[in-house]
Amino acid sequence: MKKYSFTDVNRGTGDILDEAMSKPVALTKRGREKIIMLPVDLYHELIKARSRVQSFVYADASQNILDDLDRGLDDILNGDEHV
């Protein structure tokens, strides 16, 4: 990901914004990333993917989740290739 300082943004905003419309761009302050600009379609993909993530406390998990977890751990421990 290309990085630009805040000073770069003040000098050439148009070019940086054009680039950010096609791929993520980092804005830095004192050498540290502070802001990431990205195309709106990528942003929506990330938000959609995040909404599909499921988390839970082990004690509150359904039996189906526990069974899937158990099978997955067995596959890892047994070195099954389809993992």
Main sheet: which strands, in order across?
1-2-3
- CATH topology (fold) name of the largest domain: YefM-like fold
Largest sheet: 3 strands, mixed
| Quaternary form | single chain
In whole angstroms, the N-to-C terminal distance is 30 Å
Low confidence ranges: none
CATH superfamily of the largest domain, by name, is YefM-like domain
CATH architecture of the largest domain: 3-Layer(aba) Sandwich
Structural class: alpha+beta
The CATH class name of the largest domain reads Alpha Beta
The total domain count is: 2
Question: What's the alpha carbon Rg, rounded to whole Å?
Answer: 21 Å
What is the H-and-E element order? EHEEHH
Tell me the number of helical segments per DSSP (H or I, 4 or more residues long): 3
Percent strand equals 15-25%
- Kindly state the number of beta strands: 3
Shape: elongated
Helix content: 40-55%
Mean pLDDT: 87
